[in-house]
Inverse folding.
């Protein structure tokens, strides 16, 4: 069984064939999907719940993406806490810092990141962290939060940030980027993450792995990232698939609904 630990099933690019692509995921052996609750902005953080309620094997999260940090009001943190009681909401996020796009001012990104870490600690759920070109501040804010568990998703940062995250007990998740021929250093990095700390994801509809690169991504394609990582780590695909699925279970404690 494969687990896609990070997908955006609510994305408008899936509107025309969403049910078919969810079926394709299942048929490819992807028997668990975590669909991220960011939606089109803070008011839309419950966007993954309809999928989680419709499919026993799909789970979701609630959170505010760093791109949307400037749109946050206090009531959104209360909203988050309310949604966290839903049995299929497994995490808070994605949240974090994106200094590549800087769609929200950095001070707002940092404040909203720290506030969401507080919510996660309060409701006792793990976090999904997005970090881009913000290694030092990400590490500083995670260390200040203390005791929060979670995953650095779509990891593309330095080996130093990977090490810091591992020290903090975090898991590290790799997307299709790791399969890109110009990402050799990242692929090497991925071979050093301990087996019990590794996750795979699509982050679909973005970042299709080779050989689908450039096309719309979908959960079934997590197979290609898993295949690549298994080969890079010198283990069978089945072992990588079961290890990453076990890691997902350990971090998120998903309980399938009937
Ligand atoms: Zn992200
Ligand atoms: Zn994402």
């Amino acid at each position: 069984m494969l687990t896609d630990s990070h997908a955006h099933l609510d994305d408008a690019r899936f509107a025309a064939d969403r049910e078919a692509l969810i079926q394709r995921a299942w048929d490819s052996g992807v028997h668990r999907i975590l669909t991220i609750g960011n939606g089109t902005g803070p008011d839309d953080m419950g966007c993954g719940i309809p999928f989680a309620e419709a499919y026993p094997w799909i789970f979701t999260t609630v959170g505010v993406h760093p791109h949307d940090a400037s749109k946050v009001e206090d009531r959104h943190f209360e909203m988050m806490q309310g949604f966290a009681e839903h049995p299929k909401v497994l995490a808070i996020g994605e949240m974090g810092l994106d200094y590549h796009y800087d769609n929200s001012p950095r001070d707002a990104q940092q404040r909203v990141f720290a506030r969401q870490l507080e919510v996660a600690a309060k409701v006792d759920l793990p976090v999904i962290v997005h970090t881009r070109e913000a290694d030092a501040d990400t590490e500083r804010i995670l260390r200040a939060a203390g005791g929060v568990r979670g995953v650095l998703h779509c990891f593309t940062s330095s080996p130093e940030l990977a090490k810091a995250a591992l020290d903090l007990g975090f898991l590290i998740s790799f997307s299709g980027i790791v399969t890109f021929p110009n990402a050799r250093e990242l692929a090497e990095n991925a071979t050093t993450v301990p087996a019990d700390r590794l996750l795979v994801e699509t982050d679909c509809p973005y970042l299709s792995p080779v050989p689908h690169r450039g096309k719309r991504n979908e959960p079934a394609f997590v197979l290609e990232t898993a295949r690549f990582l298994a080969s890079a780590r010198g283990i069978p695909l089945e072992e990588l698939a079961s290890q990453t699925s076990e890691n997902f279970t350990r971090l998120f404690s998903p309980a399938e609904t009937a």
